[in-house]
C-alpha cells in the first residue's frame, strides 16, 4: 500500500485525521512537525523564532525526504510543506497526496488563538489565514484528492479518505472532491 500523505492548511485536521486513519488501516502515523521537534530538540515555534522560516523549511524538506523513503505510513505534513516542489515530488513518489481543506472561518475558529502557530502571531490572524490560504491554494491543488473538512469530525474525515482512496476502491486517481 502506498503511503497516505495528508496536507492542507493549518487547522484542517491533518494530525487528528492521520491518527485515526493509521489506526483504521493498521499503518504507522508519522507527523512531520513532531519528527522535526524530536530531531531538533525544540518546538517548531522556537525553530521559527531562533532560526527563521527559511531554516525551518530546509529542516522540513530533509524530514520529508526521510519519511518519503519509508513505507506503510500515514504522514501528516506541516501546512507549508507543499510550498517546495521537491517536497511534493518526494511525497508523491511513495504516497497518495490528500489535501484536507477548510474555510478560513473554520480554520480561525479551530486555531485562531493558538500561540503555537508562528505564522499567525500577527495583529490580524484571520486576515493572515485568508492571505496564506490564497497564496498556498495552487500548491494544495497539486494533491491527488481534496477533501473538505468543515463540519466533520476526524473520524468522518478518515472514513471519507478511505472511501476515495484509489487503491482501496473504484475511485480514480487524481479525482478531487472539493477545493483546497
Molecular structure report:
The chain is of the alpha/beta class and 180 residues long. The radius of gyration is 15 Å and the shape is globular. Helix content is 51%, strand content 13%. It has a single domain, classed as Rossmann fold (3-Layer(aba) Sandwich), CATH 3.40.50. The relative contact order is 0.20.
User: Helix segment count?
Assistant: 7
Could you tell me the CATH topology label: Rossmann fold
Looking at CATH, the homologous superfamily is P-loop containing nucleotide triphosphate hydrolases
Which class of secondary structure composition applies to the elements? alpha/beta
Q: Which runs of at least 5 residues are low in confidence (pLDDT < 50)?
A: 167-177
> Average pLDDT across residues?
88
How is the main sheet built? 5 strands, parallel
Amino acid at each position: 500500500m502506498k503511503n497516505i500523505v495528508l496536507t492542507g492548511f493549518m487547522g484542517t485536521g491533518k494530525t487528528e485525521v492521520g491518527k485515526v486513519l493509521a489506526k483504521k488501516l493498521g499503518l504507522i502515523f508519522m507527523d512531520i512537525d513532531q519528527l522535526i521537534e524530536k530531531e531538533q530538540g525544540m518546538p517548531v515555534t522556537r525553530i521559527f523564532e531562533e532560526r527563521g522560516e527559511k531554516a525551518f523549511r530546509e529542516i522540513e524538506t530533509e524530514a520529508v525526504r526521510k519519511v518519503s523513503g519509508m513505507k506503510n505510513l500515514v504522514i501528516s505534513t506541516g501546512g507549508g510543506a507543499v510550498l517546495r516542489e521537491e517536497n511534493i515530488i518526494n511525497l508523491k513518489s511513495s504516497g497518495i497526496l490528500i489535501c484536507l481543506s477548510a474555510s478560513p472561518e473554520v480554520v480561525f475558529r479551530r486555531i485562531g488563538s493558538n500561540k503555537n502557530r508562528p505564522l499567525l502571531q500577527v495583529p490580524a490572524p484571520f486576515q493572515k489565514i485568508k492571505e496564506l490560504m490564497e497564496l498556498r491554494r495552487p500548491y494544495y491543488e497539486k494533491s491527488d484528492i481534496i477533501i473538505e473538512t468543515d463540519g466533520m469530525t476526524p473520524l468522518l474525515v478518515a472514513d471519507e479518505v478511505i472511501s476515495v482512496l484509489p487503491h482501496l476502491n473504484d475511485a480514480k486517481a487524481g479525482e478531487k472532491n472539493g477545493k483546497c
